[in-house]
Design a protein that fits this description.
The protein is of the alpha/beta class and 216 residues long. It has one domain: Glutaredoxin. It contains nine helices and nine strands. The chain has a five-stranded mixed beta sheet. A two-stranded antiparallel sheet has the order 1-2. Strands 6-7 form a two-stranded antiparallel ribbon. Strand 4, helix 5 and strand 5 form a beta-alpha-beta unit. Helix 4 runs parallel beside helix 9.
């Protein structure tokens, strides 16, 4: 079975064959610039208490972290949006592991700053069986140390490829989260935490799954 990172690396290789080098350079610069801020070092670490939250799912129903943690450990997958093919691929891998996750007593949510209707489109399109929650303005992502503002030159690039993030997110801030994977124990403590400034790099779900199962 092909690992998640292998799938993402193939997507990156395909992109490099199809996209002009000068356009690729814009994205590479943005990744390097974000990495240089040290944002990866500031994410909420293993051992910390996770912020409690109440966020709406794709139907507008409020989902409370405390209610979920009462049932078992919680995998939280922060993602950028349905426009990000890397995020969609990652969530599909988690979709396929979700049965195992539930069998072992753990739960999962995916969280992005996009509007509820965008989350509804995404959940339907990709057959996601877990709640997909809206985090307006990356308010919760900020508490996990994941939120950043897209620089001006990347805003122009996104708009040139018809990715209108303020429209998708329903607010004008151009805030996004680092794609991140967290596992929260039933006591509310972080058991697994990984996020990368390079959106093309993601942890293997099995690593987080092992942490979730050990806490169930």
């Amino acid at each position: 079975m092909t690992g998640l990172q292998d799938q993402l690396d193939q997507m990156t290789a395909n992109t490099r064959q199809l996209v002009q080098p000068e356009r690729l350079a814009v994205g590479e610069h943005a990744i390097s610039e974000l990495f240089a801020t040290g944002i990866e070092e500031g994410i909420l670490p293993v051992g910390a208490m996770a912020p409690e939250f109440v966020l709406n799912d794709a139907t507008g129903r409020p989902i409370r972290s405390q209610d979920m943690l009462a049932l078992g450990p919680l995998v939280i997958k922060f993602f950028r949006g349905r426009w990000c093919s890397y995020c969609a691929t990652e969530l599909e891998v988690w979709r396929d592991l979700y049965g195992t996750l539930r069998e072992r007593g753990a739960l999962m949510v995916a969280i992005s700053p996009q509007l509820e209707r965008q989350n509804d489109f995404m959940a339907s399109q990709h057959g996601l069986p877990f709640p997909v929650l809206a985090d307006p303005g990356c308010a919760l992502a900020e508490k996990f140390g994941l939120a950043y503002t897209v620089p001006e030159y990347m805003r122009s690039y996104y708009l040139s490829i018809l990715v209108n993030i303020p429209y998708i997110n329903g607010e004008p801030s151009w805030r996004l989260p680092l794609p991140a994977t967290y596992v929260i124990s039933r006591e509310g403590r972080v058991a697994f935490a990984e996020a990368h400034a390079d959106f093309r790099v993601r942890p293997e779900p099995e690593e987080a799954l092992a942490a979730a199962i050990s806490k169930s």
